[in-house]
Design goal:
By secondary structure, the chain is α+β, with helices and mostly antiparallel strands. The chain has 4 helices and 4 strands. It is globular. It is an enzyme of class 3 (hydrolase).
Length: 117
């Protein structure tokens, strides 16, 4: 994800799942046949340039293995919180999985809606 409108669409109009080291924002585009887009936000609050780039590389690597879980047409923004600077990769992976599970579970219609109740 590279365009500001895409980031803004996911953050403002999408759903959010927060964890201590990161917050994930999930939205959908109008063109649902497009591949999912993922963007990362790592602010100065996380640390200096070297630390921010390391965190961003870790998150990018972790998301690469999880892209197939995202539906087509989705927008995902992963924002790192300051504790991400000192978190091990395993912790970031676990918290990313929890956040994605929450967001994707919210997106699925409940069983009551599918049964027509």
């Amino acid at each position: 994800m590279r365009r500001g409108e895409e980031f803004a669409g996911a953050v403002r109009k999408g759903s959010r799942a927060g964890r201590p080291t990161l917050v994930a924002h999930f939205g959908m585009r109008a063109e649902t046949d497009e591949p999912p887009l993922v963007g990362f936000v790592v602010s100065r609050a996380v640390g200096g340039a070297v630390t921010r780039n390391r965190v961003k590389r870790q998150l990018r690597h972790l998301m690469r293995d999880r892209l197939d879980r995202l539906p087509r047409g989705s927008l995902l923004v992963v924002r790192a919180n300051p504790p991400a600077a000192s978190a091990r990769s395993e912790r970031l992976a676990a918290e990313l999985d929890v956040a994605l599970d929450r967001l994707l579970r919210r997106r699925e219609p409940s069983a009551a809606h599918r049964d027509g109740r």
